[in-house]
Write a structure and sequence with these properties.
2 copies of one chain form a homodimer.
Chain A: H1 8-20, H2 23-29, H3 34-48, E1 53-55, E2 60-62, H4 64-91, E3 96-102, H5 104-109, H6 111-121, E4 125-131, H7 134-142, E5 148-151, E6 160-175, E7 195-199, H8 204-213, E8 219-224, H9 227-235, E9 241-244, E10 256-260, E11 267-275, H10 282-293
Parallel strand pairs in A: 3-4, 3-5, 7-8
Antiparallel strand pairs in A: 1-2, 5-11, 6-9, 6-10, 6-11
Helix pairs in contact in A: 1-2, 1-3, 1-4, 2-3
Chain A binds a DNA duplex through helix 3.
DNA sequence: CACACTTACGATATTCGTAAGGATT
DNA sequence: AATCCTTACGAATATCGTAAGTGTG
């Protein structure tokens, strides 16, 4: 008794008949032969245990119970259709939400153009971006607050599914009048002698750099958070710095020079990281795939 | 595309799987074999065009789209079940409403006991009673404000379906000390000489009486609306009166006498009248049938 | 290898459309 | 006679359960 099966077709048939008051016309609207339609209405009446229409050969009218059913049925069908339409919108990416957690270096340079392209293609999909360091990016994904992350660490764990997005070479940035700006063969150990403007200790750039320079140490004069701050400091000659290729857009000014390192250790890998136990939402997968398609290219010069 | 068919079984399967996170257990809950259940879930995913569960051999989890569907689906199924349950209540007469339009003479004497019996059997069904004269009874039914009427006229029209409920003989009512109280053969024309307390001109009693007496006229001293008033007047000796047998309960007191007329013309017929173009609601039919079963019996003495 | 979901497949039920039936105007 | 709903019935479709397949711990 409790396991009643009702279909939207039955309710739609009911509503069509209630409106048109004719089996023949209602059957047409439902794209059914008239006898099949008749059977469908009968099946609904039997399922509910109540006659819903008074019909003879000339007239079709709702019974008292039918009239009672009309409004709830209409609402129910509308809800159903709304639900299906909503899902259809998501599948068609006319609707949805993607939340990405990404390193600030990507967030500032590469992501804006990519987000813009995504928005042009999928104007109905909301985008959210958390620009924070790798570990916090992963925390956000783990907590379900971000769909996936762009991070500099590719955690090897059954918890995660990772994919390499690109590799990003480190570049020296200094004033045009700095000795290193013109030095023939640029090597890591050359950095040791000059005042250096660092990113925070947690940043991937700094960790790679210290590892490559070990056991030498750099002459750190400043430790800042923001890319723009670094740029200002270097431009004023406070020190030199090293940044990933993907952030070079910030340093394209006449007074500054940037030069790549060729050492393999001075390369970071950017990973796309997502939870292994969850698939991406349709919208998220769409953005994810666009990222792979539009991989950032680390500058060679 | 717009003609999507979804069934409650699909939604129930979805909800069971979302809750139990196991095809096997959810299939059990739905009383299906596990492969049949699997196919049911797949059919829903195909209908919506979106994968709703991430499943491998070990784990079953909702996808982002599945999580979005969960709450609306739960609500929708609950609404469905509410609707079916409500209809079931009406079919079982645990719920509903009947509105009857009846002549005051029936409303006061016969209906109370009948309504009481109906309420005992169907405590959930609301009852409404309009006690008014025949023509207004029919108006109420025509307007849909009453399900059927108990009237003294059986209109012959395709608009109405009528059924005889009972016949009701008229009785003379007078004081025990009145000459007519003991007169051997009681005839209609005997009424002409005595002061008479009448019902309103629209009442069925009066119409029958005047027709039977024609061309003689009665010595009307008063014209009142309510049965109780008539009783008081007659008891005080203001006049005599004639009432239908079904109202005699009001005149059962030591000081009064009532005597039936044997003339066929001094009989009224009580009809059950309902709209021909509408069936009765389940609750209304139930009361209607109870009325036929418990037909009032017009007193013979 | 045990467990859990999927695929394969034959049997059963349901649903369909065409055609005939019945009632009403 | 025309119209409209119902019934009848064979055909197409869907759904079921059993059994075999597949992947994972």
């Amino acid at each position: 008794m409790g396991q009643m099966n009702l279909s939207t077709r039955q309710l739609r048939a009911f509503l069509a008949l209630a409106e048109l008051r004719s089996f023949t016309r209602a059957a047409n609207r439902c794209h059914l032969s008239q006898p099949a339609f008749s059977a469908l209405v009968r099946s609904l009446e039997e399922a509910l245990g109540a006659r819903l229409f008074d019909r003879d050969t000339r007239n079709v009218e709702l019974t008292a119970e039918g009239r009672l059913l009309e409004e709830p049925a209409r609402r129910l069908v509308a809800d159903f259709e709304g639900l299906v339409a909503d899902m259809g919108d998501r599948v068609a990416r006319r609707k949805g939400r993607v939340s990405v957690a990404a390193l600030p270096s990507l967030a500032a340079g590469w992501l804006p153009g990519l987000f813009a392209e995504f928005r042009r293609t999928n104007p109905g999909v909301d985008l959210a971006l958390h620009d924070t360091l790798s570990d916090q990016c992963l925390d956000l994904v783990r907590a379900g607050r971000a769909d996936f992350a762009l991070a500099a660490t590719g955690p090897e764990s059954p918890e995660w599914t990772t994919e390499v997005l690109c590799r990003d070479r480190f570049h020296l940035v200094c004033r045009r009048d700095h000795p290193l700006a013109t030095k023939a063969a640029l090597r890591v150990k050359d950095l040791a002698g000059y005042p250096f403007v660092h990113f925070s200790r947690a940043s991937s750039v700094r960790q790679h750099l210290e590892a490559a320079l070990h056991p030498q140490q750099m002459a750190t004069v400043l430790e800042v958070e923001h890319l723009t701050t670094v740029m200002g400091m270097v431009e004023e000659g406070v020190g030199i710095t090293v940044v990933p290729g993907l952030t070079l857009f910030e340093f394209e000014r006449g007074s500054l020079v940037h030069r790549p390192f060729n050492l393999a250790g001075l390369t970071r890998t950017i990973y796309l990281v997502r939870r292994a136990d969850r698939s991406l939402s349709i919208a998220a997968r769409s953005l994810y795939e666009l990222m792979i398609e539009r991989k950032p290219v680390s500058r060679r010069n």
